[in-house]
Design goal:
Layout (H helix, E strand, L loop, with lengths): L1 H82 L23 H7 L14 E3 H11 L1 H4 L35 H11 L10 H14 L8 E3 L19 H4 L1 H4 L18 H4 L23 E2 L16 E2 L8 H10 L39 H8 L6 H9 L1 H4 L13 H13 L3
Helix pairs in contact: 3-6, 5-6, 10-14
Bound molecules: heme C (2 copies).
The site of one heme C has 25 residues, from loops.
């Protein structure tokens, strides 16, 4: 029974398998064909897209070349216009092929913005005004800030005077002394004054005010009238005081040459510690000076050139500064801080040089005015001749009020006000050797 069953079942099963695999094959073929078809259609799509892109690219290339041509045309045109000396402040050429946004500005709108006046008078509206009228308008509209005579009230700008100050350290730059073009005055006043009420002045008022400002600068007489006709003739005081900046052409290249690397110093010697010179910041407990005891407070070798050594001290160029243990190191440290007020002009320590003031090594016990290479003022020369010597009392008195202790000294220092600063600086100066 089992055998016959097998015999029946197997062929059936085999037949089924055969049928199934045939079906599968057909299905597969079907699938394959669909796949091919879809791939084919994709290829078609892609090639269509490629064509499309190519077409767009060529369109864009054409646009670009058209734009290039336009730019070239405009360049040629503007060159021609410039060469023909035509007015470069004229409105730009109308633009073709705009985006269709906005509208043409109306002539009135353009005129409202087009208020600039150029040095040769272009842009000025017709009109006139005299000093007399200007005086009145100025008194009414400007004097509250600029003063009746344009001299400036409080900190408001001065508009007159300052003629002989242009070469000074603090020149008084006014309309009269400094401004190179009258057109700037007209333009500025008309455009932006009175402060807070800009562009309320009529053309005639502006002519009158400008005439009055010139008058208050003594540049015209009281019967002067300014108008669009005589405007361009007027020459300002400082017209030639400005130069074209030619540094980019003439100077910059000189600064860009290769750095000199010849004749360098063969070796470098360390002559002092940075903490002591006060070039490293304090804080963080790192500084030697912070919790220094007398033993580890830095000492250094004084190595001043003989010429800098005060005449009465040992002429040897090397001597070691030994700190006496009775000077409080904290006081020295705070004296070192006070010395920051002096170090723009005074140097101390090994190899100390004269700056605008003499080096101050070994000051206590040193004759006044005795640094040979330093050119002292008369009062110090006299003190030196009289054999006066720096001691703590004299130093404290001098540093408290330099000008009254040494009448006529050229030390431009107002003095140390605090007693403790005087003690500290004395301690510090004692600590820096001789
Ligand atoms: C409310 C105060 C005030 C009034 C009124 C006023 N100004 Fe001024 N003016 C100023 C101030 C502030 C400035 C400086 C503005 C700035 O630097 O931007 C100035 C600057 C100027 C300057 C330029 C000065 C310079 O050297 O830079 C001129 C010129 C001037 N004013 C003229 C006038 C005239 C003319 C009037 C009257 C029509 C007038 N001002 C009214 C406050 C005033
Ligand atoms: C702006 C520069 C300047 C400053 C800051 C300055 N000095 Fe002087 N100091 C001088 C000049 C210049 C002299 C020479 C004075 C003279 O010839 O009249 C001088 C002279 C001295 C002298 C006399 C030296 C001698 O050889 O007789 C002492 C001491 C002195 N200064 C200490 C100090 C001290 C300490 C400080 C800081 C608290 C200080 N100075 C700040 C410029 C300055």
């Amino acid at each position: 029974m089992s055998k016959s069953l097998k015999e029946i079942v197997l062929p059936v099963a085999g037949g089924t398998a055969l049928a199934l695999s045939a079906a599968l094959l057909i299905a597969n073929m079907d699938y394959g064909q669909k796949k091919i078809a879809s791939l084919e259609s994709k290829v078609e799509q892609v090639s269509l897209q490629a064509e499309d892109a190519a077409q767009r690219a060529s369109q864009e290339a054409q646009t670009v070349s058209e734009l290039r041509q336009k730019v070239a045309e405009i360049q040629v045109l503007s060159e021609q216009r410039a060469a023909a000396g035509s007015d470069m402040t004229e409105p730009a050429l109308p633009k073709e092929g705009a985006f269709g946004l906005g509208r043409e500005a109306m002539p009135e709108e353009v005129a409202a913005w087009d208020v600039d006046v150029l040095p040769d008078g272009r842009g000025l509206p017709e009109g006139r005004g005299d000093v007399f009228t200007g005086d009145e308008v100025f008194a009414e509209k400007c004097a509250s800030c600029h003063g009746d005579f344009a001299e400036g009230v409080d900190n408001w700008p001065v508009l007159a005077g300052g003629f002989d100050t242009l070469g000074d350290k603090d020149p008084v730059k006014t309309v009269g002394s400094y401004w190179p073009y009258l057109s700037t005055v007209w333009d500025y006043v008309h455009r932006s004054m009175p402060f807070g009420e800009a562009q309320t002045l009529t053309a005639d008022e502006t002519y009158a005010i400008v005439a009055y400002i010139l008058y208050s600068n003594d540049l015209v007489d009281d019967d002067f009238e300014l108008s669009h006709e005589n405007f361009a003739e007027f020459e300002m005081y400082n017209t030639d005081g400005f130069v074209i900046d030619d540094r980019p052409e003439l100077e910059y290249s000189k600064w860009r040459t290769e750095p000199c690397m010849e004749n360098c110093k063969p070796s470098v010697e360390i002559t002092m510690r940075a903490t002591f010179l006060d070039v490293t910041p304090e804080g963080g407990g790192e500084s030697v000076m912070n919790d220094a005891s007398a033993e580890d407070t830095p000492t250094f070798v004084a190595n001043a050139p003989a010429s800098n050594t005060p005449s009465d001290t040992a002429s040897g160029t090397e001597s070691v500064a030994v700190l006496s243990a009775d000077i409080d190191p904290k006081l020295i440290a705070s004296g070192q801080k006070v010395f920051r007020k002096c170090q723009a002009c005074h140097d101390v320590g090994a190899g100390a040089k004269n700056k605008s003031g003499p080096q101050l090594n070994g000051l206590i016990g040193r004759p006044m005015g005795s640094v040979e290479s330093f050119n002292y003022s008369k009062v110090f020369k006299t003190a030196h001749e009289e054999g006066r010597v720096w001691d703590e009392a004299a130093l404290a008195e001098f540093l408290a009020k330099p000008k009254s202790f040494m009448k006529g000294t050229k030390m431009a220092f107002s003095g140390l006000r605090k007693e403790q600063d005087l003690d500290a600086i004395t301690a510090y100066l004692k600590s820096v050797g001789d």
